[in-house]
Specification:
The chain has 174 residues and is mainly alpha-helical. The chain has one domain (8-142). Helices cover 75% and strands 0% of the residues. It has 7 helices and no strands. Helix 2 (16-28) runs antiparallel to helix 6 (92-110), helix 4 runs antiparallel to helix 5 (75-87) and helix 5 packs across helix 7. The relative contact order is 0.12. The model has no long low-confidence stretch (mean pLDDT 89).
Length: 174
C-alpha cells in the first residue's frame, strides 16, 4: 500500500508494522544463530523474556523516533533493552548497534519512497543517531552498576576470608 501523502512520517506510520518487524528481525540476527531463532520463534513471554522485551521495546522506540518530541521519553524502553544486552556477551558497540539497524530496516521497507523526502529522512536519521548516543549512555551506566556490584561482592568475599582467617589463627600469646 503506497502512501501518496507529502510526509515521510505519514508513510512511516502507514508502514509501521513492516518497519518494526524488519528492525526486530535484524536485531534478532545480532544474536548467535540458535539464540536468534529461539528469540524470533518463541511467543511465550515467560519462556522468552528477551524476545518479548525486544518486540515491545522496539515498537515503542520506533514511535518515539518518529514523534517530534524529546527522545528522553524513549529512555524507559531503551533501558529495558540495553539492560539485557549489557549483561549478555556484547561489546559496547554490539550492544547499541541495534539502534542503527532501524536505518537499514527503514531503507529496506521503504526503498525508493525515502528519496521523495530527503530533508525529512536526514532529520530522522539524526534522531536515530541521538537515540544511539542515549543508548550508549544507558549501556555505560549499566556496565558501571555491574562492575560496582562485582567489586562489592569481591570486597565481601575478602572480608569473609579475613574473618575466617582471624577465627582460625591463634590469638596473641603473652
Amino acid at each position: 500500500m503506497k502512501n501518496t501523502d507529502s510526509s515521510l512520517i505519514a508513510v512511516l506510520i502507514d508502514r509501521r508494522s513492516d518497519v518494526v518487524r524488519e528492525w526486530l528481525d535484524r536485531t534478532f540476527r545480532t544474536y548467535p544463530e540458535s539464540a536468534g531463532r529461539f528469540l524470533s520463534l518463541e511467543r511465550d513471554p515467560f519462556r522468552n523474556p528477551v524476545g518479548h522485551a525486544l518486540k515491545e521495546g522496539l515498537a515503542l522506540l520506533f514511535d518515539r523516533v518518529i514523534e517530534n518530541t524529546d527522545l528522553a521519553a524513549a529512555r524507559p524502553a531503551l533501558d529495558g533493552i540495553i539492560r539485557m544486552r549489557a549483561v549478555q556477551d556484547f561489546t559496547a558497540g554490539q550492544a547499541v548497534a541495534f539502534v542503527f539497524l532501524l536505518k537499514q530496516a527503514m531503507r529496506g521497507v521503504l526503498q525508493g519512497e525515502i528519496a521523495r523526502f530527503p530533508a525529512e529522512y536526514a532529520a530522522l536519521e539524526a534522531r536515530i543517531d541521538e537515540l544511539a548516543l542515549l543508548a550508549f549512555d544507558v549501556f555505560m551506566k549499566c556496565r558501571e552498576q555491574i562492575y560496582e556490584i562485582r567489586a562489592n561482592e569481591a570486597g565481601r568475599r575478602v572480608s569473609l576470608l579475613e574473618r575466617a582467617f582471624q577465627m582460625r589463627s591463634p590469638g596473641p600469646t603473652n
